[in-house]
Amino acid sequence: VAPGSRCLLLLLLLLLGILGSPALGDPGPLEDVVIDRYYIPKICLREAQMGDFIRYHYNGTFKDGKKFDSSYDRGATVAGVVGVGRLITGMDRGLQGMCVNERRHLIVPPHLGYGSIGVAGLIPPDATLYFDVVMLDIWNKNDKLQITTLSKPERCNRTVENSDFVRYHYNGTLLDGTPFDSSYSKDSTYDTYVGTGWLIKGMDQGLLGMCAGEKRSIIIPPFLAYGEKGYGTAIPPQASLVFSVLLVDFHNPKDGVFLEHLEVPESCKRRAVTGDFVRYHYNGTLMDGTLFDSSYSRNQTYNTYIGKGYIIPGMDQGLQGVCVGEQRRVVIPPHLAYGENGAGKYKIPGSAVLIFDVHIIDFHNPADPVEIETVFRPEGCNVTTRNRDFVRYHYNCSLLDGTRLFSSHDYEKPQEVTLGANKVIEGLNSGLLDMCAGERRVLIIPPHLGHGESGARGVPGSAVLRFEVELISMEEGVPEGYLFIWHGEPPANLYEQMDLNKDGGIPADEFSSFIKSQVAQGKGRLMPGSDPEKVIADMFRNQDRNQDGKITPNELKLKSDEDQEKIHEEL
After folding, report:
1. Which of 126, 150, 199, 281 sits at 20 to 30 Å (Cα–Cα) from 407?
2. 435 φ/ψ angles, rounded to the nearest 5 degrees
3. 264 and 350 share one domain
4. pLDDT, tens only, 122-165
5. Position 227 in a domain
6. Domain check: are 271 and 351 in the same one?
7. Is 68 a known active-site residue?
8. Confidence of residue 21 (pLDDT cuts 50, 70, 90)
9. Which of 52, 53, 107, 114 is catalytic?
10. Mind listing the pLDDT tens digit for each residue in 41-70?
11. pLDDT confidence band for 17 (50 / 70 / 90)
12. Quick one: 243 and 270 in the same domain?
């Protein structure tokens, strides 16, 4: 450019800068769609891209605010594919990049709208269009199920598989957060089989691999949900669904009882079998931890026979083989518990899996004898206890779980009893027989030889008792009904020997002196365990038949003779 021409050009640019350009005052027709993102959600997991299926609401107006169209007025959202020419160009461009729940104002120039032709009776030629749009849903045919684990139990021994029966709570919303259904509002879980076509495909897939107690968010694209038809008025066509799911429990119809041995005593001499009577404590919970029953709350064990149908089948099976003192977890599927109907009394829902944490207190069989373990037996033990003997012994009594009940050591002297006189429980009487002085034993006494179903003060009903006994001393007894017996034959002239002053009558003092002399000479013995004076006084009263204070020859009779007379009379 010539120097003169260059100066002229600079002068022209300067004048334009001073006077301003007419074009800057009036921008003229829009070249592209104008986008005003007036609300953007804080969380935007996805933006609409070319080829995505979208669902949205809109109001369409002209510049003067006059409305020409609205999806709200039709009561139905608009669904379509963005960026592939199925929408007017301005809308195609204006919708791209939107998030779910984002709101935009779009200004679409005529050449990106309906151009110079317009839409007869609706949109005039060369009209600029104004849209207020809210994005409700975005998905793509290549989408997969989106699963997010919100929380998961630390222990998860098993996860959901196809053909399992599940019980779960859920909140269902559209992708924009609009709720459409909730199991919580029905106060009941949703119960169904997985992988058998009872659920929409996305839920069938989304529940797989879940643990009981796990929470998940499951986002299901329309083609794995209700597709083009939607579902009623709550779920529009082509809607993505969001489920917040809490898996309460699950099982398989083929499941049996599952056992977990929490604590087994090192010593287990015997295991429970069918027909045994078991006493146990338990906590009963659902799989989500909800407590429905507890024996501890009643402060009383649950007592029952096992294997005889008195309890639910799963517990009948689950208690087989338990040891005394064992703690065991028994997981029972509903078909071995309360089935589809549940148990309203215990607030157990239908089809619920039950978990029992049990602690075995004791068990026995109605045919059990007393179990005797000799801990110590002195050498040279020639004399042992028999029924009617009078014994002194120490004891500690407890339940099989170690609960202390009674002890003779709490008193100043040992326990005293005449064996076979129905003064102690049958099992203890049996356990004290054939013992030597100084011998120590452990006795296990079943309830039918103890305090029975009713128990006793401080002793629970149907309790098996454990006695530690030590025989301190023993005195040979007399037969039942006898107060005194001869060691040999009684004197032939018994009355004459008793009548010390030979006056034809035996008063109480003569009778007492004679009996005491016989005992002192080792010719006879009194019933042990009672005051000798009282025993002799009872003997005198028995012989003084007319109660005149003396015994005559006709009154004096040996008990053996009296027994023979009674037999003769009966015959």
Report:
1. 281
2. -100, 150
3. yes
4. 999 999 999 999 999 999 999 999 999 999 999 898 999 999 99
5. yes
6. yes
7. yes
8. very low
9. 114
10. 999 989 999 999 999 999 999 999 999 999
11. very low
12. no
Same-domain status, 126 and 69: yes
Q: Judge whether residue 90 has pLDDT over 80.
A: yes
Which domain-ending residue is among 139, 171, 198? 139
Does 468 share its domain with 528? Answer: no
| Known catalytic residue at 372 | no
Q: For 299-318, what is each residue's pLDDT tens digit?
A: 999 999 999 999 999 999 99
State whether 128 and 153 are in the same domain: no
Active-site residue (options: 53, 58, 280, 282): 58
Question: Is the pLDDT assigned to residue 4 strictly greater than 60?
Answer: no
Q: How many domains does the chain have?
A: 5
pLDDT score recorded for residue 26: 45
- The predicted-structure confidence for 425-434, as pLDDT tens digits, reads as follows 999 999 999 9
Catalytic residue among 32, 62, 69, 181: 69
Residue 15: pLDDT above 70? no
Two structure tokens written together for 502: 């030979």
Residue 516 sits in a domain whose CATH number is 1.10.238.10
Q: What is the pLDDT of residue 201?
A: 97
Examine the residue annotation and report whether 376 is marked as an active-site residue of this protein: no
Dig out the tokens for 444 from the structure: 């296990």
Please pick, among 56, 130, 131, 484, the residue that the annotation labels catalytic. 131
Give the pLDDT score at 499. Answer: 86
Give the other-Cβ count within 10 Å of 213's Cβ: 18
- Of the candidates 32, 88, 258, 495, the residue annotated as catalytic is 88
Q: List, for residues 455-507, the tens digit of each pLDDT value.
A: 999 999 999 999 999 999 999 999 888 899 988 888 888 888 888 888 888 99
Cβ count within 10 A of residue 514: 17
Q: Around Cβ 128, how many Cβ atoms within 10 Å? A: 16
Indicate if 58 belongs to the active site: yes
Same domain for 353 and 278, yes or no, is yes
Rounded CA-CA distance 232/37 in Å is: 33
Question: Cα–Cα distances in Å, from 139 out to 160, 172, 222?
Answer: 27, 18, 8
Q: Cβ of 532: how many Cβ atoms within 10 Å?
A: 15
CA distances from 287 to 6, 186, 318, 354, 560 (A): 90, 20, 17, 7, 74
Average pLDDT over residues 364-392: 95
| CATH number for position 219 | 3.10.50.40
Phi/psi of residue 441, each to 5°?
-140, 160
Q: Are residues 167 and 245 in the same domain?
A: yes
Among residues 330, 363, 396, which one ends one of the domains? 363
Active-site residue flag, 165: no
Could you give the C-alpha distances from 374 to 185, 342, 381, 429, 510, in angstroms and in order?
66, 51, 13, 15, 48
**Helix axis angle, 532-543 to 508-520, nearest 10°:** 130
Single-letter amino acid code for the residue at 374: T
The verdict on residue 3 lying in a domain is no
* Domain membership of residue 102 as a residue range: 34-139
Contact 383, 436 (CB under 8 A): yes
Q: How are beta strands 371-376 and 440-445 bridged, if at all?
A: antiparallel
Token digits for 248? 């309460």
In a domain, 6, yes or no: no
Is 88 noted as a catalytic residue in this protein?
A: yes
Domain-embedded: residue 27:
no
